[in-house]
Amino acid sequence: MYNVAEVNAEACVAQKGCRLCIMYCPEANCIQLDSQKMKAVIVESRCKGCELCVVVCDAAKHNAIKMVAR
Amino acid sequence: MANRIQINKEFVDIMPQDYLDLVESGTFESPNRGWKDFGTATELIAEHSLCAGCPESIAFRHIMASIPNPEDTVMVGSTGCTSLVFPMIAVHNIHSLFGNQNAIATGLKRALAVRFPDRIKDVIVLAGDGATVDIGLDMTLQSWFRKERFTTICFDNELYANTGGQESGLMQKGFLAKMAPVGKRFDKVRLPEIARESGCDYVAIMTASKPSLVEKVIKQAVLIAREVGPTYIQIYTPCILEIGKQSMEGLQEMRTSEAPGERFKFREFISPEAQSFLDGLAEKKKAEKIAATT
Ligand SMILES: Cc1ncc(C[n+]2csc(CCOP(=O)(O)OP(=O)(O)O)c2C)c(N)n1
Ligand code: SF4
Ligand code: SF4
Ligand code: SF4
Ligand SMILES: [Mg+2]
């Protein structure tokens, strides 16, 4: 089992300019901005499951990311 | 799209997607590249094997997004955790023997100036604290004394991470590590002050907690090294593994360590020559802005 991050598009406020998870994810090219829907999306194959994105998203009270088992 | 970074049409069908992405949506030759490209452009780092949540990865990402001319930059690395990332970056780089990085960079910078007299060629050293301050200290200092025109970046995690936690010159006094069980008896070496006294025209000490600050500092350091003299940046990239933190705690560790009075509070030294160079740049930018609006 391996934990990866998952974005709940309804709770994500990237359309309002939030880029916190994209800024702080330690892995390059791992969280992308879907420029049509204007939501953050995780590239699962690059995610190491560190949970830093959850920390920064929760700290801003968006609570849009959770870890899921794969 | 970039002009100089192109792919031979004959190879398009056999190159990996990551490579095609770099050519198509990388940020080579983009004049305003920076962390704001994250999420929409292809970054210059592929998957690597640093620990999950390692702040060295965060700092590396911010640096690779910020260097002003990646297509005309050669980086010099050394042994340590950073050497797990160097093979995965889309910028020319040389792996030096542990500690030799500033000597290699010296020869490289001089050779590039002879070979490409009409082209900008930036050299950036990026190495751990063990490489910069202990084993490579001679080479680090001598390059500054000689005013060699390149940037030295030290990823300061205050110990030898890659070999399991030995004492480093940048470790704090009293700190205990797995392979340094007695506790450090001496003070953390004051390398930023030594850098200033040794001839660096720009010195910064910081953490990687703010991408915009890393971007500003990296750009200044590379441009000053290009035009004025040697530059040095020391970035706290805590080894979460060795200090017993969880994978998601690296950012908070950096924030705590840069609070007022703490050892990584942001500090900057700019020589008068470097300051007048920066002032000139700022004036030019202002003039361009005015010209664009009128
Ligand atoms: C000439 C030489 N001496 C010693 C080593 C063993 N060695 C490999 S990594 C390392 C420590 C690296 O520490 P640092 O530069 O602080 O980088 P970090 O891993 O902490 O990022 C050492 C001593 C080596 N590879 N080559
Ligand atoms: S931090 Fe949260 S709200 Fe902000 S872009 Fe990421 S997922 Fe969306
Ligand atoms: S869990 Fe870590 S690696 Fe995965 S997306 Fe979040 S910050 Fe990135
Ligand atoms: S050992 Fe420490 S410095 Fe090296 S990758 Fe892991 S967390 Fe980062
Ligand atoms: Mg180290």
N-to-C order of helices and strands of chain A: EHEEHE
| Outline of chain B | globular
Measured by residues with Cβ under 8 Å of the partner chain's Cβ, the largest interface is: A-B, 22 and 26 residues
Number of strands of chain A: 4
The largest sheet of chain A is: 2 strands, antiparallel
- The low-confidence parts of chain B are none
Which stretches of chain A are low in confidence, meaning pLDDT under 50 for 5 or more residues running? none
Total domain units of chain A: 1
SSE pattern of chain B, N- to C-terminal:
HHEEHEHHEHEHEHEH
Strand content of chain B: 5-15%
Count of separate DSSP helical elements of chain A: 2
Alpha-carbon distance between the termini of chain B?
A: 28 Å
β-strand amount of chain A: 25-35%
The radius of gyration over CA of chain A amounts to: 11 Å
Oligomer: heterodimer
In CATH terms, what is the fold-level topology of chain B?
A: Rossmann fold
Shape annotation of chain A: globular
Q: Quick one: CATH class of chain A?
A: Alpha Beta
Largest sheet of chain B: 7 strands, mixed
Query: How many beta-strand runs of chain B?
Result: 7
Write a compact overview of the structure shown:
By secondary structure, chain A is α+β, with helices and mostly antiparallel strands.
Describe the structure.
The complex is a heterodimer of chains A (70) and B (294). Chain A has 70 residues and is α+β, with helices and mostly antiparallel strands. Chain A has a single domain, classed as 2-Layer Sandwich (Alpha-Beta Plaits). Chain A is built from two helices and four strands. Chain A has helices spanning 20-24, 52-59; strands spanning 3-7, 31-34, 39-42, 65-69. Chain A has a two-stranded antiparallel sheet. The longest helix of chain A has 8 residues, at 52-59. The longest helix of chain B has 22 residues, at 272-293. The radius of gyration of chain B is 19 Å and the shape is globular. A seven-stranded mixed sheet of chain B has the order 2-1-3-4-6-5-7, with helices on both faces. By secondary structure, chain B is of the alpha/beta class. In chain B, α7 links the parallel β5 and β6 (231-236). In chain B, α2 (55-66) crosses α7 (211-227) and α4 packs across α5. At the A-B interface, α1, β2 and α2 of A face α2 and α8 of B. The structure holds thiamine diphosphate (TPP), iron/sulfur cluster (SF4) (3 copies) and magnesium ion. Magnesium ion binds at residues 80, 128-130, 157, 159-161, 168 of chain B.
